[in-house]
């Protein structure tokens, strides 16, 4: 054992597909109050001598309550054991975060930014270590982890440190007819924000809402995915310091722990995950009218017009569908290619895919998939498509090796009767459909319950913008895909079933705030006209005022429209 503060004892309990060790022993909540960071049973138990694929480590368990095991997806071996925390422990974490909320909210924006820039420095100091933690639990390649996880978060912190003060500054608005009044809005912290995150980008998709909430003056309780909890615990360690130990609490556990957080009385829930769980989160939040921000799944379309630079579009399509082994909410999940360039597109895609280096070196192009059950979904979608007439031109069969490996896969002869073209596949698969026109491509792209990201490839900037305007999506890239997320100034989020609310940009910071409207006095008047007793001729005065202010022509202003 490398490190644990929990004791190890024997258990005969079973291991589930998600690695939860079911334990009938009662939950120990007493330790939670002594935790500096909400990890009541201590650090994750990292195994030096992992157990074989799918197996619990030989009768071991962290003492003090139920636990979760995580796996190294590159080998299928058990990687770590962390606490599966109870609703009581979640409430205790929320209470600690609430106690820290007022002093943190009382700081100026610049003071909070200074602290968060120090957190970013800690991130930079421990970059190599963080990359190892991320890769071990996700199967990513190192460069993927650095660029899409660490650098993306540095960008976000940088942008909010530079622009957030202006975004949250009180703003005056015109007071209309009541010219003697002064009107302004101010952005106030919500209090405690609950963040629930998924496994596909366990660092970015936890840190982005966490730091945004903190910039806005809130404190946070983070519940990372049960598939990647050690990344969540590493995030918690970034925030541990002498002054602000309780700003970010990390609670580990599965769905029940997440639901306990939704029901814990937090002031907002920021959830990133599947549509199915998002609906559950929203339903649970409805009981307490807790506001929710939902970043959900996608089925992102890519449209290749007949005038596109095909070679570039191919590079983008293959990268966009295969990077992170296709496990990106904004992965290119379906391509619609104009008939005039279709054959060339497909043959170049096959050459590009054949050259992808998929291995466990850490420095290849893509690694393993992250979550075993997701491989089953990929296989099911492919089987459904093939049964309905699709042709697999590359890949298509899971690799025969330990861990969760699926090769880059290209499928043609697809249509919208197939799950592969309508449901989120979340694997390294590119289905390509031939279309006769841009109109057909747009119609098919919009024929989806999802609307997260999308892309159009054309050399005509006007056409690109026209198509972008017609796509039902929260985000569109022209001649690129996915990377709009990396521009922190652009708000990111979905339409339709892909979610509600935005992260990033001014909108993302204001999502974490309560906008309070204030009406004050500009000029003191003896009394307001509408106060009691209502003046006898107020109706006539009001009509004359209305006409004078809102009439579009002099005749209307004078009340003479329609009169000779
Ligand atoms: P998931 O929905 O299975 O789990 C997400 C989180 O919710 C986990 O932490 C989980 O423990 C928690 N959870 C489960 N049941 C819960 C409940 N009843 N109440 C509260 N929390 C609960 O998603 P996943 O498999 O971890 O992630 C993959 C999904 O996330 C994909 O659909 C992907 O498209 C989506 N995603 C969306 C975005 C985005 O920004 N729109 C980004 C990344 C991933």
Model description:
The chain is of the alpha/beta class and 564 residues long. It is 38% helix and 17% strand. The chain contains 17 helices and 22 strands. The chain has helices at residues 87-106, 109-125, 127-138, 142-168, 204-215, 229-238, 255-262, 275-288, 310-322, 339-354, 372-387, 419-422, 438-446, 461-470, 505-511, 538-550, 554-557; strands spanning 8-9, 20-21, 45-46, 61-62, 67-72, 77-83, 171-173, 181-189, 192-196, 219-223, 248-250, 268-272, 292-295, 300-304, 332-338, 391-394, 409-412, 429-435, 455-457, 477-478, 499-500, 513-521. The protein has a 7-stranded mixed β-sheet, with helices on both faces. Strands 11-10-9-12-13-21 form a 6-stranded mixed β-sheet, with helices on both faces. Strands 2-5-6-3 form a 4-stranded antiparallel β-sheet, with helices on one face. Helix 1 packs across helix 7 (255-262). It is globular and about 90 Å long. The termini are far apart. 49% of the residues are buried. Residues 1-42 and 48-61 have low confidence and may be disordered. Residues 196-201, 205, 223, 225-226, 254-255, 258-259, 262, 272-274, 277, 280-281, 295-298, 329, 424, 426, 452, 494, 499 line the site of nicotinamide-adenine-dinucleotide (NAD).
* Low-pLDDT sequence parts: 1-42, 48-61
End-to-end distance: 96 Å
| Helical content band | 25-40%
Q: Identify the overall geometry.
A: globular
* Radius of gyration (Å): 27 Å
* Main pleated-sheet profile: 7 strands, mixed
- The total of beta strands comes to 22
Side by side, the strands of the main sheet go 16-17-18-15-14-19-20
The DSSP helix count reads: 17
DSSP strand (E) fraction?
A: 15-25%
């Amino acid at each position: 054992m490398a490190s644990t503060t929990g004791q190890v004892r024997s258990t005969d309990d079973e291991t589930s597909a998600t690695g939860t060790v079911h334990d009938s022993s009662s939950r120990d909540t007493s330790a939670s109050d002594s935790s500096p960071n909400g990890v009541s049973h201590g650090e994750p138990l990292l195994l030096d001598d992992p157990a074989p694929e799918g197996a619990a480590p030989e009768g071991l368990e962290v003492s003090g309550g139920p636990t979760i095991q995580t796996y190294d997806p590159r080998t299928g071996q058990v990687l770590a054991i962390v606490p599966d925390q109870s609703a009581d422990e979640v409430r205790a974490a929320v209470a600690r975060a609430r106690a820290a909320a007022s002093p943190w909210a009382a700081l100026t924006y610049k003071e909070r930014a200074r602290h968060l820039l120090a957190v970013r420095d800690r991130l930079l100091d421990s970059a190599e270590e963080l990359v190892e933690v991320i890769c071990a639990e996700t199967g990513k390649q190192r460069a993927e982890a650095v660029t899409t996880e660490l650098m993306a978060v540095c960008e976000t912190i940088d942008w909010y440190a530079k622009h957030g003060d202006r975004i949250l500054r009180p703003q005056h608005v015109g007071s209309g007819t009541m010219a003697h009044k002064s009107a302004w809005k101010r952005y106030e912290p919500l209090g405690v924000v609950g963040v629930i995150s998924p496994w596909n980008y366990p660092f970015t998709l936890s840190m982005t809402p966490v730091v945004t909430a903190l910039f806005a003056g809130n404190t946070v309780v983070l519940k990372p995915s049960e598939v990647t909890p050690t990344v969540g615990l590493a995030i918690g360690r970034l925030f541990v310091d002498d002054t602000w130990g309780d700003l970010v609490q990390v609670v580990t556990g599965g769905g029940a722990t997440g639901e306990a957080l939704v029901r814990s009385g937090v002031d907002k829930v920021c959830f990133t995950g599947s549509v199915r769980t998002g609906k559950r989160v929203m339903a649970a939040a409805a009981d307490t009218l807790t506001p929710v921000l939902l970043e959900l799944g996608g089925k992102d379309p890519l449209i290749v017009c007949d005038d596109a630079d095909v070679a570039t579009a191919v590079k983008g399509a293959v990268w966009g569908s295969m990077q992170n082994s296709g496990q990106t909410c904004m992965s290119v999940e379906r391509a619609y290619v104009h008939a005039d360039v279709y054959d060339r597109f497909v043959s170049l895609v096959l050459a590009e895919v054949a050259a992808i280096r998929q291995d466990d070196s850490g420095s290849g192009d893509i690694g393993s998939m992250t979550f075993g059950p997701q491989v089953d979904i990929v296989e099911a979608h492919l089987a459904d498509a093939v049964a309905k007439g699709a042709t697999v031109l590359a890949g298509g069969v899971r690799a025969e090796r330990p861990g969760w490996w699926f090769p880059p896969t290209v499928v043609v002869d697809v249509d919208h009767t197939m799950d592969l073209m309508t449901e989120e596949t979340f694997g390294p698969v590119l289905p390509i459909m031939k279309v006769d026109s841009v109109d057909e491509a747009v119609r098919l792209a919009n024929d989806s319950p999802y609307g997260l990201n999308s892309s159009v490839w054309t050399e005509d900037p006007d056409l690109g913008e026209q198509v972008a305007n017609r796509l039902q999506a929260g985000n569109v890239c022209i001649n690129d895909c996915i990377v709009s997320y990396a521009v922190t100034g652009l708000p990111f989020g979905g339409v339709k079933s892909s979610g509600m609310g935005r992260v990033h940009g001014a909108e993302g910071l204001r999502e974490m705030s309560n906008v309070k409207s204030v009406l004050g006095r500009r000029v003191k008047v003896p009394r307001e006209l509408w106060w009691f007793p209502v003046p006898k001729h107020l109706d006539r005065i009001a009509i004359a005022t209305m006409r004078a202010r809102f009439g579009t022509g002099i005749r209307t202003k004078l009340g003479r429209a329609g009169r000779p």
